[in-house]
Amino acid sequence: MPATLKQPTSVDKKLAKTMTITTNCGVITIELDPAAPQTVTNLATLARSKYFDGSFCHRLTTEGIYVLQCGDPSAQGNGSPGSWKGYKDENLPTKKILTYPAGTVAMANSGPNTNGSQFFLVYKDTTLPPSYTIWGKIKTGLPLLLRIEKVGAYQVDQSTGNADGIPVQPIEIKSVTVR
Predict the structure, then answer these.
(1) For a surface tag, which of 2, 22, 128, 140 has the fewest beta carbons within 10 Å of its beta carbon?
(2) pLDDT tens digits for 120-157?
(3) What is the per-residue pLDDT for 154?
(4) Looking at the DSSP assignment, which residues form a beta bridge with residue 68?
(5) Which domain CATH number covers 169?
């Protein structure tokens, strides 16, 4: 990523409508949600600058919650664009029970208004606290994510009891495009 990539301070006049993530395992197409305009603007900016290209999805959770987490080029789960500040939550779920249905795409964060570049793809209905910005819906690629789930994750996080860790099948993001 260019060191000079500036964080957008305003929303794009014309929001991108779709994001295509091309991985070594196949293609995932996401319909972007205009109810999260700053998030869509920021992710489109990162995609256009090739921030995600060549990065790996670093976390797969296969019990309790069903998500594949991507968007950190360091693959350590703590990365975000260096000079960027966390930005506000948008479009948080309003349902009490099923907060993140299968196909939801949402921001990962470390607390309120700490969004950066990391996001997760929900491949089976998942209930989480309503604190993660929903910015898209998977249009194509859900069967691909279900195949990745079957292969599993390496590390089991003992603190949560979830099968949670690095995907056994490495998932490299070759490119991300928006239009």
Answers:
(1) 2
(2) 999 999 999 999 999 999 999 999 999 999 999 886 55
(3) 83
(4) 60, 121
(5) 2.40.100.10
Which is nearest to 44 in space by CA: 4, 14, 84? 14
In a domain, 1, yes or no: no
Residue 82 belongs to a domain: yes
User: Do residues 138 and 30 touch, judged by C-beta distance below 8 A?
Assistant: yes
Q: Yes or no: say if 75 and 52 are a contact pair by the CB < 8 Å rule.
A: no
Q: Report the pLDDT value the prediction gives residue 175, as an integer from 0 to 100.
A: 98
Residue 74 to residue 53: CA distance in whole angstroms: 12
